[in-house]
Amino acid sequence: MNVVVASVVDTIDQNVWELFANNPFMTSAAQVVTSVGVIYVLLPLSVLCGLHIWRSTGSLLSATIPWIAVQMNSVVVASLKDWTSVARPPKEFWVVNATAGSFPSGHVANTTAFVVAAVVLLSQIHPSRQRALVGVGLFSCVAMAWSRLALNVHWLSDVLAGWCVGTATSLVVLRLMQQIKSQRENQLQTRG
Questions:
Q1: Which residue among 65, 140, 154, 191 is least packed, with the fewest CB closer than 10 Å?
Q2: CATH of domain 2-191
Q3: How far is CA 16 from the centre of its chain?
Q4: Using alpha carbons only, how large is the chain's radius of gyration in Å?
């Protein structure tokens, strides 16, 4: 069964990769999009988002969630890349340089982790803008995945896994922070 699944995934990966490798369209746009998915861009964005959350809610704990989600996700991705050691598409087709293993896409996972945390928290602050926030978030995650495929440095399975890893990490961080916040509120109520 595992051989069949691996064969199907490999075939899909190969077909999607060939689509992008044989149609090098919009690589300049893909390079701009992919440049946002690096940790030294996402962490300052997380800090800016956190400042807005802090100003809006007064909760320093909530303000740190996007930053923590990106940091934790980058550790998870690095561990998965080491553990799986999946090779990238053929290097002669790369439009940009890439390092480490292919699976999962760190750009997609880190972007998704930031976006999920930011959208959840900002939607709580601005409920009337929830649809717009979700739309911008989805577009950002899809654009990042597209850029990694268009630049021929990832397989489709890498970006799909990136979405899953980033979402899962962010949801775990959000849940843990909610539990910490609830415990702190319970302790304050008990004292009062």
A1: 191
A2: 1.20.144.10
A3: 21
A4: 19
Which residues contact residue 176 at a Cβ distance below 8 angstroms, ignoring those fewer than 6 apart? none
Domain boundary assignment for the chain: 2-191
Return the half-sphere exposure (C-beta side, CA atoms, 13 A cut-off) of residue 77: 34
Residues 119/141, Cβ–Cβ less than 8 Å: no
Q: Is 82 strand, coil or helix?
A: helix
pLDDT digits (tens, 9 = 90+) for 60-119: 999 999 999 999 999 999 999 999 999 999 999 898 999 889 999 999 999 999 999 999
Query: Per the structure block, which two tokens stand in for 138?
Result: 């989805």
User: Tokens 């561990």 correspond to what residue?
Assistant: 79
Residue 74's nearest CA partner among 168, 175, 166 is: 166
Say which DSSP state 155 is in: -
The sign of the torsion formed by the CA atoms of 7, 13, 18, 19 equals positive
Three-state DSSP class for residue 85: coil
